[in-house]
Amino acid sequence: MNEPRLPRGFLAAGRNVGLKPSDNDLALFVSRRPAAAAALFTRNHFPGAPIVLGRERIRQGRLQGLVVNSACSNVATGEAGLEDAREMARLAAHELGAHGDVPEEMVLVGSTGVIGRRLPMDRIRTGIQGMGQDLGTDPWPAARAIMTTDTRPKVFSMQVGDAVVTAVGKGAGMIAPNMATMLVYLFTDAEMETPRLHEALQAASRASFGVLSVDTDTSTSDMVVALANGEAGEVDPEAFGAALHALCTRVAEEVARDGEGATKLVRVQVEGAADPSEARQVARSVVESPLIKTMAYGADPNVGRILMAVGKCVGCRIKPERVQASVQGVEVIRAGQSVEFDESRVRELLGGDPVEIRIDLDVGRGRGQALGCDLTAGYIEENAAYASS
Amino acid sequence: MNEPRLPRGFLAAGRNVGLKPSDNDLALFVSRRPAAAAALFTRNHFPGAPIVLGRERIRQGRLQGLVVNSACSNVATGEAGLEDAREMARLAAHELGAHGDVPEEMVLVGSTGVIGRRLPMDRIRTGIQGMGQDLGTDPWPAARAIMTTDTRPKVFSMQVGDAVVTAVGKGAGMIAPNMATMLVYLFTDAEMETPRLHEALQAASRASFGVLSVDTDTSTSDMVVALANGEAGEVDPEAFGAALHALCTRVAEEVARDGEGATKLVRVQVEGAADPSEARQVARSVVESPLIKTMAYGADPNVGRILMAVGKCVGCRIKPERVQASVQGVEVIRAGQSVEFDESRVRELLGGDPVEIRIDLDVGRGRGQALGCDLTAGYIEENAAYASS
Looking at chain A, which residue has its C-alpha nearest residue B309? Predict the structure, then answer.
């Protein structure tokens, strides 16, 4: 990873327009020239208005601007909500116009926050005025503006040949692997045809956001969007794919680590499964188990919980007597049974971040992993108190 | 429900044999005469030794005694663990012999507690001595002895004609609907052929324990066992089935309500689904969602979370614009959108126990429900600190 920065030809801005008390809550991103664009959206049956609009607009395969607000997700708001999303795009296009003509159809909208409320459009209309003047090369004000329960903004960059790929993401809760799973915007100055960009995005996303589960819940607002404006010319497609993969994995890990109330990343790697899909299923079962999550938090090596969480995958091909597992590199289960291990040492290792659990099912060659986080009292406080009003 | 008591011809005892610091940890149950018996066991791939033994012994269709310990589940202990379970049955048979000859094969074993440790057989061997003398008609000492993280013992009775059906159960965590889902022992003096008993048990269990999820985890030790000793003669089979159903539902509700750290029962009823299985799937998705569980705890009517949890059932036939939902009888979602409702009133109602969420998908005639509980800081404390040693 490099020093996080926007690739050539991209600008961003973030400010507070009164959706949150004082933190930034509205972000703009623009590419100087129209960019090849690909996007993946949540599979939740109740997609927010920005998702409905985004699915429509991504079909053209090109985009130039993004406008994203936090605090209100514009979900379950019907026709009126869709009209609000369209107006947001129009308002943003007007501001972005300071940097050349940007048609409103070339602007994608994202919203994240409370479900089931109309956007306070009056505040957005007033607050967005003059934001075009704020646009600059610093990604952080925009990255902060898209945060909800995140404790820190997430921006990462990688170099690919002469090009840069940068991810700006947010996500801390309502995250489970049914695609996309949060807001992630990827910008690159590499030249990339839309179909190729889409393919690379899909592959990178499947292996990163697709194995991420903070809380088993699936947001109604998730999207991963990639924009390639070509200013740095062509790059090696394999290197680009690898960079995108590394970047998405990094964002996914950071989202898990910054999960609501979380203190650490939990990574579960499964090998020897009958096939990759069963490997992922077992990994997810372990990473999502509240008893594993609280074990990671409490740093107590109660390894029977690993057997329980593997064993509850009723449909998977598992031979109990073949199962091996390690925690933080220390073997704790062999032939389906607990083995003697240095408990105080494992307890100490479990205090670290990340917690790594490796499981070998020894029935095939399937491999897969899952990313998650620990479960703490902070999660409860945050979500029992998260004001709907 | 009647005053809880054991049916005619059943006796029970409970005492501390040193597996827990001072609370009862060993229970005996006996029927004066061999009883028709049926049982359902966990589907976890790592069944405990008592489950392995139980599956073998239930084939004979008749049982006379039960011995159950808490604190250690005798799971992942291999051949040695199986031998321990057999010895427990033998020791129990010896004690039960005070009330007529009880062959060890007629004794079923249950164990619940930490996974992956051998039973402290020396303590059981010493502690069980003389327990036959303690056997009496009071079910409570035995009910207390099978508790782990439960905060209260669970015994319920119902009258069916001249017969009584009584449930003694335990369960608070590691509970999700893949059969059985805890330890529940049902005793009746009704006369009942084994196949009929099994059928009634299966039907009652499917509709009660089968829709119960405290934490999405599936225990390695779960069993539901029914013993019918016939001392009260025949009863109307339909009335018996109804009683068993009511009793199992009551136990399931009490287990949810007494879930680890829980302060209340959450019941989700879904109607209008494409079929009953999708109704149950949606109900379970809602009841298991940590965002719904924390909402129930925080009594905050953040109803967008209901849409999210319904919407994440990707495989189900859902038409967003038809979905209706109510919380505590107050309509909160109509045509897939939030409706205006009296928030302070719903907040007040959500403070109660149980929390009732009803959802109408309006695409078919499928109905189903799910039982669960709220998620609190108490759950985290309990499970982050639950000593494996």
Answer: A217
